[in-house]
Amino acid sequence: MALDRQGWEVELARWLEPFVDHLSHRARRRMCPLYIAGLIGPGDRKSVQPMAERLGLGSHDRLHHFVSSGAWDAAPLEGELLVQADRLVGGADAFLVIDDTALPKKGTRSVGVAPQYASALGKTANCQTLVSLTLARDEVPVPVSLRLFLPESWTGNPDRLERAGVPLSARTSRSKPEIALAELDRVREAGVRFGPVLADAAYGISASFRQALSARGFLWAVGIPRIQKVFPAEVAMVPPPPARRQSSQPLIPATAALAAEVILEGQRWRMIRWRRGTKGVLKAAFTARRVRVADGPAVRLHGHNNQHMPGEEVWLVGERRSSGKRKYYLSNLPADTDLKTLAATIKARWVCEQAHQQLKEELGLDHYEGRSWTGLHRHALMTLIAFAFLQHQRLAVARRGKKSPRATASAEPAGDPSQHHPPDCKRTLVISHLPLLPTTHHVITPQT
User: Fold this and answer.
1) Which DSSP letter does residue 411 get?
2) Cβ neighbours of 207 (radius 10 Å)
3) Residue 258 near residue 230 (C-beta atoms within 8 A)
4) How many CA atoms, within 13 angstroms, populate the side-chain half-sphere of residue 12?
5) How many Cα atoms are found within 13 Å in the side-chain-facing hemisphere of 213?
6) What are residue 270's phi and psi, to 5 degrees?
7) How remote is the C-alpha of 31 from its chain's centroid?
8) Which of 186, 212, 197, 228 lies closest to 349, judged by CA?
9) % helix / strand / coil in the chain, to the nearest 5?
10) How many Cβ atoms are within 10 Å of 447's Cβ, its own excluded?
11) 329, 296 in Cβ contact below 8 A?
12) Whether the model pTM is above 0.85
């Protein structure tokens, strides 16, 4: 990116003005831009001490106090981040992607750390897990929320919670889907514009999560396990047979529910190309049919206890990859949605994984060395603001028509472009692949 050192520093200061305006204390108004500049700037390690050295601060005390100890409210800055993210990529054709990301740790004292499954590592590891929300449009992601999940080994230990400074409101046990829904409500209340909500099977397996999305009026597409039980959409509802104990349901399904993989057997599969990646065209075979999810009230059906009545009518989508691996999804997109659109919507989730990688590798999300709840969340917020600034810069470059060599291996439209992208959208760029800035070592002098 062809921006000189002075140019990006000036632009960062200007772009951060609405954020800094929310910080009343003069020292914090200085430290916030410096902390973010330290995250964006050169250097492999983005923890407080090496950043302070590169910024020419002499001591890391002021940066440490800003992120870990200072008594300031992060909520106004979080709200401003939502405003800026909406300006960058918000719209009816945007997606909101729910996921989580793991921060590996060696010790036991960092808040929320415990042996738990880390999807990025593909195994159980000692780590912290952050539930994330990412706003994305035209394959440009802007992460807008990171919230720590607390395992039972933490929520069941008041002394541990107290030592880590976990606020009282966060000490009760909450599942990842519950955390995601609370953040989703906050994002919507802030006026952020988006279309479908996307999530993988770790969230899609939860019936209460899917039902909560529908109750809120959201369109959604989520992964599910292959054994998820569903009924055909056309399942007949009949009176229950005579029994000693009267059924609680006046009508029951005439047939038993089937696993998702079973109900798609015999379906016609169709090859769909949804994007051109660095290794060529990305494609897979897809199929879809309308079903009713077996997530209604629990009852005894067809001689078996703990069965579930038919619930919402949705799409069941199957994906068959070239490796032979199969994936399954549910979506409440309208009944007249075509298969290309279903596939493109499901595959739009990939941008959150790219954003997580950049937050860690280039902005030091996983470099925070403190142990407190407050410090971790403030550090995470600073990385989100830094990421949003970089996307602001990249989009500005794209609008000026400056193409990066790395950006030319980009996406062809997922499905019909007219259904997903505004007419003036230039699909020759994947903005989030443009290089970060700056690329040279420098010292930023704090303003007085």
Assistant:
1) P
2) 16
3) yes
4) 25
5) 27
6) -135, 135
7) 28
8) 197
9) 35, 25, 40
10) 9
11) no
12) yes
Give the C-alpha separation, 360 to 128, whole Å.
13
CA 131 – CA 55 distance, rounded (Å): 31
Mean pLDDT computed over 63-90? 95
Q: How far apart are alpha carbons 95 and 90 in whole angstroms?
A: 8
Give the pLDDT of residue 216.
98
Residues listed for the chain:
448
pLDDT tens track for 175-185: 999 999 999 99
C-alpha separations of 157 from 126, 151, 160, 377, 445 in Å:
18, 10, 5, 20, 44
Cα-flanking dihedrals φ and ψ of residue 357, to 5°? -65, -45
- Residue that has been written with the tokens 């030319």 in this structure: 408
Q: What does the alpha-carbon distance between residue 383 and residue 77 come to, in Å, rounded to a whole number?
A: 12
CA dist., res. 358 & res. 42, Å (int) = 14
Q: Cα Rg for the chain, rounded, in angstroms?
A: 24
For residue 145, what are the CA distances in angstroms to 93, 148, 216, 348, 385?
20, 10, 19, 18, 10
Q: Of the candidates 124, 242, 251, 100, which has an alpha carbon nearest to the alpha carbon of residue 180?
A: 100
> The tokens 């407080």 sit on which residue?
48
Q: Which amino acid is at 57?
A: L
What pLDDT does residue 247 have?
A: 63
